[in-house]
Amino acid sequence: MPLQAVEPRRLYRQIAEQLRVLIQRGEFPIGSRLPAERELAAQLGVSRPSVREALIALEVEGLVEIRAGSGIHVVSREPGPTARVLEPTAFGPFEIMRARQVVEGELAALAAAHATKAQVAGLREALVQMEDDIAQGAMPIHGDRVFHLRVAEAAENGPLVRTVAALYDERNNPLFELMGHHFENEKTWRKAIAEHRAVVAAIAAHKPEAARAAMQLHLQRSQERYADAWPQPAEATQAAADAH
């Protein structure tokens, strides 16, 4: 028998596969609740963020439903007709954010060394766009993308602008979208805008070290918001409203 290529799999996919098998075997019957994240992480010997990504991957498939204030409920043994396809090589949100933290921290430092007044003005315009979107009840994702790309452009490195765009656009994969649905709302976005302002201030002052630190802190805080406690019912209702 010829050897077959071994598929590299992300940790969250391995966790999701174990839980999927248990659900399909009926060890977690339909209507039951899965153990809490902390308990699953301890049993599997992995981090809670990896478990969270796995649970959301199962929700993307339609096997579980994450209910604010109630837990993770099994709703099906097989993917439903409305299940979305998660690419086998899809990166998890936390892995993407860690990569962005490394790349964009350095780009912010370069931007602080090279940015023109016009480029700084462009960063501030992106923040205004984000605030306007929030005021209209919309998620300010477009303005956020513009902001991060403009920081990269101010660093004057074309290939890295493409890298930032590619990393940012991973938000469009179903896993990241659903993570955002659960954990992004007006409150979290306003915190992000405040962090953006610190980045702009450092770039405008031409302080590379401060710009690097501000961007890395922003992306670290973003990860922490995704790893925060599950929203309670009132917060979940607001997040759902903000997403539409």
**Which residues sit in consecutive blocks of at least 5 with pLDDT less than 50?**
1-8
What's the name of the CATH homologous superfamily of the largest domain?
A: GntR ligand-binding domain-like
The name of the CATH topology of the largest domain is: Four Helix Bundle (Hemerythrin (Met), subunit A)
User: Could you tell me how far the N terminus lies from the C terminus, measured between alpha carbons in angstroms?
Assistant: 52 Å
What is the string of SSEs from the N terminus onward? HHHEEHHHHHHHH
What do you see in this structure?
This protein is mainly α. Helix content is 66%, strand content 3%. It folds into 2 domains: 11-74, Winged helix-like DNA-binding domain superfamily/Winged helix DNA-binding domain (Arc Repressor Mutant, subunit A, Orthogonal Bundle), CATH 1.10.10; 93-227, Four Helix Bundle (Hemerythrin (Met), subunit A) (Up-down Bundle), CATH 1.20.120. The protein contains 11 helices and 2 strands; from the N terminus they run H-H-H-E-E-H-H-H-H-H-H-H-H. The protein has a two-stranded antiparallel sheet. A hairpin with a 3-residue loop joins strand 1 and strand 2 (71-74). Helix 2 packs across helix 3 (48-61) and helix 4 packs across helix 6 (141-154). The protein is elongated. The N and C termini lie far apart (52 Å).
